[in-house]
Amino acid sequence: MSKDKTMINEEIVDFTDRVRLVDTDGEPKIVDSHKALEIAYNKGFDLVLVAPNANPPVAKVMDYGKYKYEQERKKKEAKKKQVKIEVKEIKFTSKIQDNDINYKVKHAKEFLQKGKHVKLRVFLRGRELATPEKGFEVINRVWDMVKDIAEKQNEPKLEGNYINLLVTPIKKKKKN
Hints:
2 domains, four-stranded mixed sheet, 28% strand
């Protein structure tokens, strides 16, 4: 049984011989799966397996088309409420000049003010990898320039040829 596939009607009879049936009146009772299917058909509904891992599995008498429609609607609503976080990346080198740092920090501040996350990266080339301290100096200088409007998600760390630091906008405290 796949994750999004719900067993209905005859599939339940093939899956198990007894089910805990939740009828339209809401009273659960343990019955033979053939009998449960017969009850559902007599009422003009489907037999839907809602808890296959229970002992015995739980099946409910309901309109499957309506159930599926409701599930899709809930998924769409949840998707609408999701917040998509955008991460902008700004690269530096360990030998960057002050005016270049100022220019890039200006962009980082603009992104942070728009509510975006910013990944600050210092790229280390060749022999610079032997002395990553200069890269850490650059990233700490940049952090000092943006710390009034941002918060660190972690400490700067060396990952491959890059020293990375993720900063996010400071969360505003809600007033009661």
